[in-house]
Design goal:
- The protein is built from 32 helices and 7 strands.
- It is an all-alpha fold and 752 residues long.
- Among the domains are: 5-190; 199-334, no CATH class.
- Strands 3-4-5 form a 3-stranded mixed sheet, with helices on one face.
- Helix 1 (5-17) packs antiparallel against helix 3 (54-110), helix 2 packs antiparallel against helix 3 (54-110) and helix 14 (381-403) crosses helix 17.
- The radius of gyration is 36 Å and the shape is globular.
Length: 752
């Protein structure tokens, strides 16, 4: 590539933005002469001496007002024509200046003395650079001039509104005034036209998005088309979220294909830069459009088995979304096969040079796609490729760390982990493809590349790929992903708890990746009861969630997340809530269903023994924060005695030699006596079905608004009262407390 090739490429693109043919000079817009004549005619109709009185005076005033309106309209017409002429002058000047810049470059190149080709190319470089700089300044000046014209024309609308609102007698005008020629959307509903989506408009609107000068010269209706084409209905988004096919229409797909192709010839970095100044709603629309046109679940409704050809390129309608429909620069980056390459060492024992290619470009793609509204990225092949790329880069980075003797080189914008976290943060909103990847044949490999990394303060961004699994647990995409994550983390618990050096630099996984741990804990939280063996008999039907094989697996799951305060609180709070729900549900008219009390015991046991397993992990310097946070969660879990009262734990935590919460959980769970919390959960369930219980003289001091509330100072007395009530009155409501306690205790083991 010669030194001048870059200049000519830049010049040609700039010249295209100034269009072809003679620009309109605005004369046809100037109707001021006709308006002035109409003003004169109105003035001539003023009443003379033959008509006297109040009626004549009112008519004269209105007549004068109308004459003034015609004058003001004539003035505005002249101003509008002048601005159109100004725009034409900007175009003409831009073309002339570009021609001059080209002539200057060619003249300078021709003036160079004869020399070798290599020396000539070297001397052409500063000439080409100056030529590109001149072209850039020409375009910037023209753009600024056009934006100024656009601002003044917008000001004319304000003047026109003032005239319109001042007219009292104009027939047929809005509120007695003039019709609004600046706002066609104010026409009657039957006169409104839906934005027309077709290949030509898609191509034109794409040119407007990529180039501010073109955008300044286009009518504003491109915006309406853009929003119309890139906005799906809630029903369509819901279907995409479930991985279903959605027919978006041939017109929309034709428009979006040409909109996308308008960015051909630009790298992701150039597309990002060109669209950076767009209004937020247009950046969002572009991201959504690219997501739709690259989504193989988005169908046009038109079968097309031949693909695009030179003959059909300008009006091509894809049968479905695809990576191939994206701008060629984005497509090339998303499909590259040289992401990670290794150089052969140049001498024995020399370090291997590893090159991660395209990381920066993937960041640029992420920035382009990130503005899309929730739901639009589901199923996009673009975000699928971004997830695959981030996984590949992360795995290579860990290999370099684990293997040694490898020097990693990358083109990332900033630190590598930050770059990859940004990509995952954007692509992780594609829940459908996260699901398809992690539940697919290479799911473990993908998860290894993310989970085995030490993300540190970037881990919350990575967590975006998993924190959604609890949002709609009846959606198989969510529940099947949550099931995979739960089993994956439990199966690798020993490694994830390890603090013996290794990949997490001497800390357990959850402590090194607190944001990711929190996101995963949140994501799997609705499925804990099913992990413990619950199912349809307990009104749970989350598709694809499988029970763990035994109690130790469930304990392992809790132990992994118990090693970070945030994830510990999230998971244990969810388990505590589901435990209470199971106990209260057993008081319904249907009574106990199957082994639901045993399942409650399994949850309780997993929380207690999981904390005990976590206790064995070497504690880091800031582990005290975890102790306090986990104690807040476990303090009121219904274990075997009152030693778990929040006040007691909090008091001991503040001591100089604080006892970890695991000690409380293990000791009190082994006592085998009934707990006040267990009794309270049963009573709360009974109160919802038998509110008259609140009137019982012995119980009423401990019930407020139909719910058990016990002051700390009254816990001992309440325990005695509740135990007596369950022995004497509980059976009348179907509660054999001793039997319930025994059934719950069946869950206190490692083998189910």
């Amino acid at each position: 590539m010669g030194a001048l090739d870059g200049f000519y490429s830049t010049w040609n693109k700039a010249r295209e933005t100034f269009g072809q043919g003679a620009p309109t000079d605005g004369s046809q817009f100037d109707q001021s002469r006709s308006l002035t004549q109409m003003k004169a005619a109105v003035e001539a109709a003023a009443p003379d001496d033959r008509w006297q009185g109040s009626g004549a005076n009112a008519y004269a005033a209105a007549n004068k007002e109308h004459a003034q309106v015609y004058q003001k309209l004539a003035d505005l017409d002249q101003k509008m024509a002048a601005e159109v002429k100004n725009a034409a002058n900007v175009v003409s000047a831009g073309r002339t200046n570009l021609d001059n810049a080209k002539s200057w470059v060619e003249g300078m190149a021709n003036s160079l003395p004869a020399t070798s080709q290599q020396d000539r190319e070297r001397k052409l470089i500063p000439i080409a650079r100056e030529g590109i700089n001149r072209v850039d300044n020409i375009v910037k000046t023209a753009t600024a001039d056009m934006m100024g014209i656009k601002g003044r024309v917008t000001g004319f609308k304000t003047e026109y509104d003032a005239i319109k609102n001042s007219i009292r007698f104009a027939s047929g005008a809005k509120e007695g005034g003039l019709p609004d020629i600046f706002n066609p959307e104010e026409k009657k509903d039957e006169d409104k036209k839906k934005p027309e989506l077709n290949s030509k408009n898609g191509k034109d609107d794409g040119a407007a998005l990529r180039d501010p000068l073109t955008r300044a010269m286009l009518p504003s209706d491109y915006h309406d088309r853009l929003i119309e084409a890139t906005t799906l209905s809630p029903e369509q988004l819901a279907d995409l979220a479930e991985g279903k096919d959605v027919v978006v229409g041939a017109d929309r797909m034709a428009y979006l294909y040409q909109l996308s192709q308008a960015f051909n010839g630009m790298s992701p970095e150039e597309i990002k830069a060109a669209t950076a100044e767009l209004p937020p709603d247009e950046r969002q629309a572009l991201a959504q459009g690219l997501a739709i046109v690259s989504n193989d679940n988005a169908l046009s409704g038109v079968p097309n088995t031949e693909g695009v050809t030179d003959a059909t390129r300008d009006n091509f309608v894809p049968a479905a979304g695809s990576l191939a429909n994206l701008p060629d620069g984005m497509y090339d980056e998303l499909t590259r096969n040289d992401r990670v390459v290794y150089d052969t060492p140049s001498y024995p024992n020399a370090p291997t040079q590893m090159h991660m290619n395209g990381v920066g470009a993937m960041q640029d793609v992420a920035d382009i796609m990130k503005p899309a509204a929730p739901g639009y990225l589901n199923g996009s092949e673009a975000t699928r490729s971004m997830l695959d790329a981030a996984s590949q880069y992360s795995a290579a980075d860990m290999r370099a760390h684990d293997t040694g003797g490898i020097i990693a080189n990358t083109d990332a914008h900033g630190p590598l982990k930050n770059a990859l976290a940004d990509v995952i943060n954007a692509a992780g909103n594609d829940h459908v493809d996260v699901h398809d990847i992690v539940t697919g044949p290479y799911g473990d490999k993908f998860l290894d590349s993310l989970v085995n990394q030490s993300w540190g303060d970037q881990s919350s961004k990575v967590g975006t790929a998993f924190n959604w699994m609890d949002d709609a647990p009846n959606n198989h995409i969510n529940s099947e992903t949550g099931n995979k994550i739960g089993h994956y983390m439990a199966d690798r618990a020993a490694d994830l708890r390890s603090a013996d050096g290794g990949i997490w630099y001497g800390h357990p996984w959850a402590e090194s990746n607190p944001g990711l741990a929190q996101a995963m804990a949140e994501g799997i939280s609705p499925y804990l009861t099913e992990f413990a063996g619950g199912g349809p008999s307990m009104r749970l039907d989350h598709p694809g969630v499988e029970a763990f094989a035994n109690g130790r697996q469930l304990q392992d799951l809790f132990s992994v997340f118990d090693l970070s305060p945030e994830s510990a609180i999230t998971l244990n709070e969810a388990a505590k809530s589901q435990y209470s729900d199971i106990i209260m549900a057993a008081t319904d008219a249907d009574g106990i269903n199957g082994n639901q009390l045993e399942i409650a015991g399994r949850l309780q046991n997993a929380m207690v023994d999981g904390a005990g397993i976590a206790e064995s992990v070497e504690q880091s310097d800031d582990f005290g924060l975890f102790k306090k946070s986990l104690s807040l969660t476990l303090a009121n879990v219904p274990y075997a005695g009152q030693a778990l009262a929040l006040a007691d734990i909090w008091h001991d935590i503040q001591k100089e030699h604080a006892i970890p919460p695991y000690v409380y959980t293990e000791e009190t769970a082994s006592k085998g006596t009934g707990t006040l919390a267990f009794q309270s959960d049963i009573l709360n369930g009974l109160l919802s079905n038998h509110p008259e219980i609140a009137q019982s003289p012995e119980l009423s001091p401990y019930i407020n608004n139909g719910h058990v509330e016990i002051a700390e100072s009254a816990r001992t007395q309440a325990g005695s009262v509740f135990s007596e009530w369950f022995r004497g009155t509980g059976p009348n409501y179907g509660v054999d407390f001793t039997k319930w306690t025994e059934e719950r205790s069946l869950g206190y083991n490692d083998d189910w």
